[in-house]
Amino acid sequence: VTVSNPYQGVDFASNSSTGHRISYLGAAPLKTGISVANNSGDGWIENVMFNPHYWARSNGYPQAEIPNITTIWEHQQANLEAFKIGSATHEHILGTFVFAALKGMYLAPDDGNSTIDIHLHGTDAGSNAVYLDNSAGSKVNFINTQLVLLGSSQIVIFSIRVFPLLIFRGPLYVWNCCRLTVPSPLKFSVG
After folding, report:
1. C-alpha dihedral over 155, 160, 162, 164, to 10 degrees?
2. Model's pTM, two decimal places?
3. pLDDT tens across 65-88, in order?
């Protein structure tokens, strides 16, 4: 499924999403790409790509002119929460990618502990490649992940919110993570 330019993309958080499977989605979302929570079992997100080209190259929409792709991705770098994951007993994420996001992989706070396995995820031109704000007691694994900060709003590769309250207390495991920041070295923020 391709959805050109949704403000709010796919919502699997407002109601129970236990046993969900989201696969082969492409879009240029403006605020939220995929939002998942209320998962008391296994859930899957796989083969999903968010890229401004889905809007800039879409045909058939009434438009006076082709959108300026730089304007789209600057908006996304300032606003987009691409993959927003809340409480999930066991969330499996495989083969996902976002170009231009405020929060590429956003592990959001709610009242549930989560186990999240993220394989082959890529955030390119993100402001925050990964933003960990999920509940204490969650376990997060990043495996074969590529995280790139490029563009005008580089903030941090891994951001872990612990102030004013200790929210994320791990464990966080990162295996074979490729990262690129220009011009600075690895950016890791706790605060």
Report:
1. 30
2. 0.87
3. 777 888 898 999 999 999 999 888
